[in-house]
Every structure is written in C-alpha cells, then in structure tokens.
Specification:
This protein has helices spanning 5-18, 25-32, 36-48, 75-95, 116-119, 139-147, 150-162, 168-188, 239-264, and strands spanning 52-54, 61-63, 100-105, 108-114, 132-133, 191-192, 211-220, 223-233. The protein is an alpha+beta fold and 270 residues long. The chain has 2 domains: 5-63, Arc Repressor Mutant, subunit A (Orthogonal Bundle), CATH 1.10.10.10; 75-264, Beta-Lactamase (2-Layer Sandwich). It has a 6-stranded antiparallel beta sheet. A hairpin with a 2-residue loop joins strand 3 (100-105) and strand 4 (108-114). It is elongated and about 65 Å long. It comes from Aromatoleum toluvorans. Residues 63-263 form the IclR-ED domain. Keywords: DNA-binding, Transcription, Transcription regulation. Pfam families: HTH_IclR, IclR_C.
C-alpha cells in the first residue's frame, strides 16, 4: 500500500520540532531538503491544528504543548506564551515600543516571549527565552511582587533575606525600600524599573542595557500568571509619556491575555 507523501512530510517536520527547542525555516530546509514554500504550508497547517507555533521573540518554530517532550519550558509557561504572542504583536503595532512576557520561577522572573524582534529596538545581547531577571529592580518583578499572594511574597522575602541578591542595588532595595515600592505599585496599578538597574545581575556600572520600562500583572482567575512590560531606550526620558499614552493599552493587553488563559484553562469549581 502506498504511503501518503504529504503526510510523511508533515510527520518529518513534526519529528524535527519535537527534537529541538526551536528551529528556523532555514534549519528545517537544511534538515529535510524540502522547498521552503512547502515547509511553510506544512508549518502553517500544523499551527492551525494547534500542533506547532512560532515565537515572535526569535522567529523559531516550536512544538505546541500537546506534544510530549523531555526538555521544554513548563507546560503552563509555554501555553501562556502561545496565548500571549498575538496580543504582544498587536500591542507593538499600536504602541511601536515592544513588550516582554515574563513569568515567576524560582525567585526570579523568566522571559517567556517578547515582541522586541518586531520593533527594531537594539537587543540586549544576553536576552533570550529563559533569561532570568531580578525581582526587586525590574518592572515585571515589582509588578509580580505587588500583586501576588501574601504567602508568595513572604516566601520571596524569606528566601532573599537568607540568600541576599547578587546585585548591590537589589540588596539595598530589599533592606530599605521594597515595602514603599510595592505600596506605590499597588496604588498606581503598574510597576516601574529601578533608575539604576542595568538589566543584569551585576551593578549597572558593569552592565547596562540602556532601557527603561513599566509593567503590569496578568491577573487570571487563579492569581498572577506573569507580567508584561513595555520598554524603550532610557536616554529618551519617555516614562511619563509612555504611561500617559500606553498604560491603558498595556493593561488591556494583560487583561486580554488573562481572559485567553482563563478560557483555555478554566479554574475548577469548588
């Protein structure tokens, strides 16, 4: 009995996606020898079926969470990134400045998706999916701390008082300023990046990505699922203008992501 060639090709591509943490169209072409237009038709078919997706941060194709894999982001994180991607892209088209989606993991925030690639903004050379960000100095970290549960916040504080942050500015904020920062964040509904945070674990004098940011939480039915920010070059001194022009858009995007997440994974009653 003859096999179905189109199906064989699709399964070949799917197998490659299952073996990789992300592949470009060129890499798939090199591995399969299939013409790129054929590969695009296969990938779009897999995407429409919910079997594959393309991250906007790096443009790489990845398997969707429906497929088992030995190594991949936690299912909840990957699903949130899949749901958030079109909303982040739409926000970037409207505001021009890009946004990141970060989730809390092991006492830091972790990058799950980003629209930076769409904006043309100069990239932090260290930044990649999975990059870990300071809780006390970053806008997403402060947004998460301000709107998480008291038990989660207490756990973070206990951890860092036993294991002080590497960044000296972060250690100072923890000791002297964090309560006031979180109170202000709760009152205004958004968080801001620390003025002397360079985006790394070390002091800003050693590494500085040159950015500023605001961030809001993604408030789903069962709590804060992550945070999204909006970033721009610090040298432009745009914070007040960004808040005035785009805070509502950022909050609406976070609400849309939360609604999509709740619809995809409704909380069990009782």
């Amino acid at each position: 009995m003859k096999s179905i060639r189109a199906l064989e090709r699709g399964l070949e591509v799917l197998q490659l996606l299952r073996q990789s943490e992300g592949r470009s169209l060129q890499q798939l072409h090199d591995s399969t020898g299939l013409p790129k237009p054929t590969l695009l038709r296969i990938l779009h078919t897999l995407e429409q079926a919910g079997i594959a997706w393309r991250a906007i941060y790096d443009g790489l194709w990845r398997r969707a969470i429906a497929l088992p894999a030995a190594q991949r982001p936690p299912e909840a994180t990957q699903r949130l990134a899949e749901l958030a991607a079109p909303h982040l892209a739409a926000l970037q088209r409207k505001a021009l400045w890009p946004s990141d989606l970060l989730v809390y993991k092991d006492y830091m925030m972790e990058l799950a998706e980003s629209s930076r690639r769409l904006s043309g903004l100069s990239m932090n050379p260290r930044y990649h999916l999975g990059y870990r960000v300071d809780l006390f100095l970053s806008a997403p970290g402060r947004a998460w701390l301000a709107f998480c549960t008291q038990a989660q916040r207490d756990d973070v504080m206990t951890h860092y008082r036993a294991h002080p942050p590497e960044n000296p500015r972060s250690a100072i904020v923890l000791r002297r300023e964090i309560d006031a920062i979180l109170d202000e964040t709760q009152r205004q509904g958004y968080a801001v990046r620390d003025a002397i945070f360079g985006g790394g674990v070390e002091d800003i004098s050693e590494f500085d990505d040159g950015l500023d940011a605001i961030a809001v939480p993604i408030l789903a039915a069962d709590g804060v699922q992550g945070c999204i920010n909006m970033i721009w070059p610090r040298r432009y001194c745009l914070r007040a203008k960004v808040v005035e022009a785009h805070l509502g858009d950022l909050q609406a995007t976070a609400a849309a992501i939360a609604a999509a997440r709740d619809a995809a994974a409704p909380v069990a009653a009782g």
